[in-house]
């Protein structure tokens, strides 16, 4: 199928793009990589009256860093993040997660901001960002606002970005000290959407006890799930088989997956516990080294 007719705009500045969004309201959609929007339009699941192509907004294509954080522009291609030494050296979890996204062709066109705004609960970038922490910067014609990543995802395929707003950049904190991280997922085939995905970042003190940890699961809720109860019981503890089992039990109790043709809810719940143990152990071992 092909999408219904629409008007097409290609602004050269952010201000022009925001003005177009203001004028179009609910009838307009931003397009950049088009990896998510175009298939949805072709299936007639979305029928915007106008598309606003932001590929000429080169000011939104950047990766920068200072002492405390890395800044990534919304238009930055996923493939650029994949090969960036700045990302590899400062936000290792994101560097590890990006190669799981689709295939090379997908990452060459797909953008960092597009993945976040699409908000698929199994997507790799939202999970990695939730595990790293940080803030999302959103602009409209009237103001710019900053949203904590924990408050950004609202429900399935829905974020805090309003129809007249544009995600412009994301700030990700650089964790200091003895940092460990891990990302893993299971899918039917490489490049398919994950059945269950998992991300973790933690720090250890000088006695190998966990001083900070963020465990996140995807594919088990309508949004990436920050497992706060599990995170709390790990603080001040060394990782052990007993602790891993306790965390897995918490995960099994709090996740609420749905069944579909790819996996049953019970199977997803089982995978969530298995992958929780796996990535926690990997992250912990990396931090010790």
From TrEMBL:
Pfam families: CO_deh_flav_C, FAD_binding_5. InterPro entries: CO_DH_flav_C (IPR005107), CO_DH_flav_C_dom_sf (IPR036683), Diverse_Substr_Oxidored (IPR051312), FAD-bd_PCMH (IPR016166), FAD-bd_PCMH-like_sf (IPR036318), FAD-bd_PCMH_sub1 (IPR016167), FAD-bd_PCMH_sub2 (IPR016169), Mopterin_DH_FAD-bd (IPR002346). It is an enzyme of class 1 (oxidoreductase). Keywords: FAD, Flavoprotein, Oxidoreductase. SUPFAM superfamilies: CO dehydrogenase flavoprotein C-terminal domain-like (SSF55447), FAD-binding/transporter-associated domain-like (SSF56176). One of its GO terms (molecular function) is FAD binding. Residues 1-177 form the FAD-binding PCMH-type domain. Its EC number is 1.2.99.2. This is Molybdopterin dehydrogenase FAD-binding protein. It comes from Jeotgalibacillus soli.
